[in-house]
From TrEMBL:
Keyword DNA-binding set for record: no
Spans annotated as Disordered: 60-90
Domain of life (superkingdom): Bacteria
Lineage: Bacteria, Bacillati, Actinomycetota, Actinomycetes, Kitasatosporales
Name under which the protein is recorded: TIGR03943 family protein
Biased composition (Basic and acidic residues): 64-87
Transmembrane segments: 39-55, 96-115
Chain ranges of the DUF1980 domain: 168-256
Stored InterPro entries: DUF1980, DUF1980_C, UPF0703_membrane_permease
Keyword field: Membrane, Transmembrane, Transmembrane helix
Amino acid sequence: MKRNVQVLLLLFLGVGLLHISLLTDLYLRYVRPGLRPALIASGVLLIALGAVSAARDGFPFNRPRTDGDQSHDGDRSNGDGHGEGHGHSHAGGPKVAWLLYVPALTILFLAPPALGSYTASRDDAKAPKAPASTTGESLFADLPDKGVVEMSLNDFSSRAVWDTDRTLKGHTVRLTGFVTPGRHGTWYVSRLVISCCAADAQVRKVRVHGPAAPPADTWVTVTGTWHPTGKLGTDDASPALDVSTVDRVPAPKDPYHDVVVTPDSR
């Protein structure tokens, strides 16, 4: 690979990382907030490496050719005016190497969106397993008796599958997520949760019974009551909601942080 390709690639990648992690919140589409310092440090390091390489090679990033380089590239003379026919070309790597700029420039000028309905519709949602109780007491705290209960999809899914005490029964709950179309006109309100980065994303989704689905990937807040499905405490149960209202809301800055969304925070 030519030196100019290497140097520019380092610079573009470094600037792109600093752009999404230092100047914007776009990095939250790919990693957890705690990794921001590491992204900033990586961006600074890449820029520094690119700058050092550029300074070493000289502008415009091509090292001046020496007499030794020229004699090596041409036919060597054997002293009697005849060449030995050992010419070599060191023009660099294949032209396709320039395609390496594509991901670097994409991060800089057109940051890919966070994972959404395409991923959620192709992965099976699994409710987080409830911890085993050693005291015989309920694993889930009672919900407030009055008003609409704001819940995360994670908490609702866990209760809807594993809560044999049925603490969801009789309560109106409110959930927030993005729309994921299902089969035969069904749809889900979904979230993707991550441990480190988007590569390890796990799906949380609740089937909606009631209103027609808004467009895929639309962020919504739905209000309704628990729709029991399957036998509680087993993998046959699945989270579902009888929905009475659907309100569109702006996409959150951190799409993977599944927390309770209150009216004041929307």
